Amino acid sequence: MLFTIVVLLSAIGVVAGLTFHRFWTTREEAGATVLYAELLKKYAAWLALRTIQSTRKASRKLWWEYIKALSLWRLPVLEKWLFVCFYGSFAYLAASGFFFAIFVPRGLYGYPLIGHVMAGGLFAACLAAIIVFKGRNFISVPEPVNLSLALLDPRKMGITAARIKLAAFWLFVAAGFLLTLSALLPMLPLLRTAGQNFMFEFHRYSAIISAVAAAVYVNLELFESGRPC
């Protein structure tokens, strides 16, 4: 039950934070509003309108066209399949892990568990390759415009979308390492029952961190390149 509550709260927090970022960076009246109550009122109205608009415009054809237009498919063959395996394995790990943890009291078992273990190995290998060959692209950060203590504009405190995206990437890498470690250690004759139980819970909460980091990174990446709405 505690795990389910943490998952729901994390999902709500991520959605609220990302949608507020979208509101703050796209609406001129957001920066001109001083009162928190007025700002939240405008944010709620904007969020409701955007939800209705997105629901009306959403279609499988539009999303399929968007997916086909992704730059992923224009990469060299080896690099393209590296990312396809990486995204696919993580998607299956997240879907199977969270679904069984929340909706199936018994937890993950049977063929889905076998697939989870296989996808975990593929994910770990792809993540290691991405860090080795692409990690340097996530090191340099643009300098902030100004440093300020202005509470209503995080960009003036040096908290930019670029910095958050890079931080999300390295948080995802750290969580991926912890996921791999907490999956491998229980397979070795090193831990007793208490240690096995701890690693099980540690694995699940590391999965939450990785999912949150991935959601933040992907949303900011799509926000920069544009997405169907």
Which segments are poorly predicted (pLDDT under 50) over 5 or more consecutive residues?
A: 145-152
Q: Please tally the β strands and state the result.
A: 0
User: Any idea what the radius of gyration is?
Assistant: 20 Å
Q: What sequence of helices (H) and strands (E) makes up the elements? A: HHHHHHHH
Q: Which word captures the global form?
A: globular
Helix content range of the residues, please?
A: over 70%
Q: What is the mean predicted local confidence, pLDDT?
A: 82
- Count of discrete alpha- or pi-helical segments spanning 4 or more residues: 8
The helix/strand class is: mainly alpha
In whole angstroms, the N-to-C terminal distance is: 34 Å
| Largest β-sheet summary | none
Q: Which range does the strand content fall in?
A: under 5%
3D architecture notes:
The chain has 229 residues and is mainly α. It has 8 helices and no strands. The longest helix is centred in the C-terminal third of the chain and has 33 residues, at 193-225. It starts with a helix and ends with a helix.
What key phrases describe this protein's structure?
229 residues, mainly alpha, 8 helices
Give the structure's gist in a few sentences.
This protein has helices at residues 2-26, 28-32, 36-57, 60-68, 77-103, 110-134, 161-184, 193-225. With 229 residues, it is mainly alpha-helical.
Topology:
Layout (H helix, E strand, L loop, with lengths): L1 H25 L1 H5 L3 H22 L2 H9 L8 H27 L6 H25 L26 H24 L8 H33 L4
Helix pairs in contact: 1-8, 5-6, 6-7, 7-8
